[in-house]
Amino acid sequence: MTSLKLSFEEKSTWASLAIILIVFSVYFSQVYDGLIDGILDKAAVTGLFFGTVVTVVILEIVLHIVIAAFNHRDADQPRDERDRLFAVKAGNISGWVLGIAVLIIAAHTFIQDLDSTWVANLLLFAVFVSQVTSYTLQLVYYRRGY
Q1: Helix boundaries (H) for the chain
Q2: CA-based angle 82:135:131, to the nearest 5?
Q3: What is the per-residue pLDDT across 30-86, written as a single tens digit (0 to 9) for each?
Q4: Nearest CA-CA partner of 35 in 120, 132, 95, 113
Q5: How far is CA 1 from CA 4, 65, 93, 142, in A?
Q6: Which whole-number Å values give the CA distances from 49 to 6, 29, 44, 54, in the listed order?
Q7: Interacting residues of 14 by C-beta distance below 8 A, sequence separation 6+
Q8: pTM score over 0.85
């Protein structure tokens, strides 16, 4: 069995993907349940959102420090051409995902006359899906090597 040797950028992408998947899944679960049950107002959702963002920032900092500590030579290097190419290719596709999701949300908002809290969280979900798409595609490109 061969072992996987991951670059610093690939480890960083894995960490970022795991963080947003876990933290924002909890956020969206709480917000959805609260909005459906009618127990969350804008202030409560705002508080949950800011708490989620702070959690993501703290986890990103901590995990990237740990990754850098174990890969100090790679962490000091700038991104190479392959890393940049993977990010651009993934970003292009995830941009399309975001654009299409925003159009769908806009159409749904006009048809259903949604509350601004719902619209804001649907847009945030679109950004979340777009970012997960970007990270996932970058990881696929790393594994493929192109």
Answers
A1: 8-37, 42-70, 72-75, 81-112, 116-144
A2: 130
A3: 999 998 898 888 999 999 999 999 999 999 999 999 999 988 777 778 888 999 999
A4: 120
A5: 10, 30, 33, 19
A6: 32, 12, 9, 9
A7: 6, 139
A8: yes
